[in-house]
Amino acid sequence: MTGSRISAWFNLIKKDVEESAFFVTNSQAVLDKTLETIPGLEKVCCIDGIACDQSEAVSKEFNQCLMHLATNPWTGPDQVVLPDFNSGAGKKINLKLYILPEADSQAFCNFFLKDKILFKGNKNSRLNTLIGFFEKL
User: What pTM does this model have?
Assistant: First the structure.
């Protein structure tokens, strides 16, 4: 199933008008394969016990954080300013966030492929690729 999940990322990228800089999975096998395959992948943060229900303000702040990480040169985890996530009642998850500096989504996908491919989507201003691993508690 690991291969089919990673293939799904590639298929979505080829069909998207704008390339994404953020890949998400809840599969430990996909995360392990990604970490094994891609040199230079760095851990940005690890947050335990985040409530699934976040305010719109927190969601917006997190999106801004992700956009900052995707579009600015990576200088290390000290540049990350995460919102104050709600850890209240309800369903919770753990989040691990990784960054592949100076590699857009096409470069990320090409790490997995023998024959490098070019996607026809519109290029964007993404400098880095982000990988998020969400684990249900």
Answer: 0.82
